[in-house]
Automatic annotation (TrEMBL):
It comes from Massilia violaceinigra. It is found in: Cell inner membrane. This is histidine kinase. It is an enzyme of class 2 (transferase). The chain crosses the membrane at residues 255-275.
């Protein structure tokens, strides 16, 4: 016997292990990429929050300059007392502003609070030409953070003031403010000092050229950080943030998860080897149990549904009789009697199927001449066949002496049920044909009728319990919907099977396949 390499348990185990291993590696890669994407999104979210807070802080602490400039435009000759009151009012909200100063003609004259040094309001390294240029073009400047003359870290903001702001021809002077950097940055320090995130701030010129970093490590801007720009009066601040140690950080528990994947791979390999080496018995048993449970649930649901109609009829008529709505006449009592008989037939059919499911069918087997049995059943149906009418024929091609081993009464019950179905559903003037043939070691009993037929979708479901075809074949439908299911159970108890197909006559064909036996081969209970 030629054994292909891919059909051996070892090869199949190797293939399964390769597939599972590749899947585990792919899942590990996807999990890592997802982790990195979440981390970058977390950093970007922190950068956005930091940008929003810094923009709010800048707006808050530059607002006193605009307000002071507006007051000076209305009243250029502010007295010292008036300016002190103005400064006290403006700096209530902007608490990081150390001092506010007025500089008519670029000379510091008024400072609030008055005890603060005036030299703090001088832009470091700015020449007279720079002051003149700022006064001429109206540039608002923000310098720093830097070390002030008193040793503190602060920022200096300066705004030119014009008495005619539209034409900018009457230059009055400057309004300036010294902002304490530590107090300015204090509310945002939690975002600047993340546990695992490095954050840096640097100046960017109006042309986009990066400047020096004034907070954090300059190396933070290397390695594809998450960035954001904040507009300042004379340029930008740039925020840069990235994970401490870089973006390619191992995700938490990655080593443990990879070891777990390896263990899963080994377990899957071992399980595959056992399944392929020992067979799929447990899996098949599980499927059988699941299908049995599903069938049991469906059985209970279908039975309750079928019993509901006759019980409802009985309850309705009895209630009506008790209430005096209808009288207990013989006709009404006949309706109740017919309903009880219908329930008796249904319960009897259910009992037969229950015994078949339990493998407890009482079959008294003997050699059965099927041609003789078919003739007996057809003779019993002769009056109904003539009144319908249906043309009946029997085609017997069995070799002499070929008989079936089975319970004659039960096999007759199956044939009676099939002929009754044909009478019930076949159009008048149609045909009914029974065929007997030998196919190998099986006897095939075929029952065919003429139109109407059965839809293709209904053929595989004809032997299901309580199934009815709701098409043209159900126009005269009656019974419990258990007839074919009982027939199938009886034939299965004989070691055979039933199948349905389309008949060449235009209707339905039911084939009964039974094992062929020699005459008088066995007597007594069917095995």
């Amino acid at each position: 016997m030629t054994l292909r390499w891919h059909s051996t348990p070892l090869a199949r185990t190797a293939v399964v292990c390769l597939v599972v291993g590749a899947t585990c590696l792919r899942l590990d890669w996807l999990a890592t990429q997802s982790f990195h994407a979440r981390e970058r999104a977390r950093v970007a979210e922190q950068v956005a929050a930091l940008r929003s807070m810094l923009e709010q802080r800048l707006h808050l602490h530059l607002a006193p300059l605009a307000a002071s400039a507006a007051v000076v435009q209305l009243k250029p000759d502010l007295t010292t007392l008036q300016f002190q009151r103005l400064g006290q009012s403006l700096l209530k909200e902007a608490q990081a502003v150390r001092t506010l100063a007025l500089s008519p003609h670029a000379v510091v004259r008024h400072v609030f609070p008055p005890e603060q040094a005036r030299e703090l309001h001088v832009m470091p390294g700015e020449s007279a030409l720079g002051v003149e240029q700022s006064a001429r073009d109206g540039t608002v400047r923000l310098a720093g953070p830097m070390q002030l003359s008193d040793g503190a870290i602060g920022m200096l903001a300066r705004r030119p003031v014009y008495l005619d702001p539209e034409s900018r021809l009457q230059f009055w002077g400057f309004v300036s403010a010294v902002i304490d950097y530590e107090r300015f940055i204090l509310p945002v320090r939690p975002l600047l000092a993340g546990a695992d995130i490095d954050v840096a701030l640097r100046h960017v010129s109006p042309t986009g050229a990066p400047g020096t970093a004034f907070h954090g490590a300059p190396a933070t801007f290397a390695g594809s950080p998450e960035t954001a720009l904040i507009a300042t009066p004379d340029g930008f601040w740039e925020i840069g943030a990235r994970l401490r140690g870089g973006w390619d950080q191992p995700r938490p528990y990655s080593l443990a998860l990879r070891l777990l994947m390896l263990a899963v791979l080994l377990v899957v390999g071992a399980a595959t080897w056992l399944l392929r080496a020992r067979g799929l018995r447990n899996k098949m048993l599980l499927r059988k149990l699941e299908s049995g449970e599903a069938a049991r649930v469906q059985w209970v649901a279908d039975t309750s549904h079928e019993l509901r109609t006759p019980i409802t009829i009985l309850a309705t008529h009895l209630d009506a009789m008790q209430d005096g709505i209808i009288a207990p006449t013989p006709a009404n009592l006949a309706v109740l009697s017919d309903t009880v008989k219908e329930m008796e037939r249904l319960v009897s059919d259910l009992h037969v199927l229950a015994r078949a499911d339990a493998g407890a069918q009482a079959l008294q087997c003997q050699a059965v001449d099927l041609a003789e049995l078919c003739a007996e059943v057809a003779a019993a149906f002769a009056p109904r066949l003539a009144s319908h009418p249906l043309r009946y024929s029997l085609v017997d091609t069995l070799p002499p002496g070929c008989v079936a081993q089975g319970d004659r009464q039960r096999l007759g019950q199956v044939l009676s049920n099939l002929l009754g179905n044909s009478l019930r559903y076949t159009d008048a003037g149609g045909q009914l044909q029974i065929g007997l043939a030998l196919d190998g070691q099986q006897i095939v009993v075929s029952v065919e009728d003429s139109a109407p037929g059965v839809p293709d979708a209904a053929l595989p479901r004809l032997f299901e319990r309580f199934y009815r075809v709701d098409e043209s074949r159900s126009r005269a439908s009656g019974g419990s919907g258990l007839g074919l299911a009982i027939c199938d159970a009886i034939i299965a108890g004989h070691g055979g099977r039933m199948q349905a197909s389309h008949s060449p006559l235009g209707g339905l064909r039911i084939d009964i396949l039974l094992p062929a036996h020699a005459p008088l081969a066995h007597h007594g209970d069917c095995p």
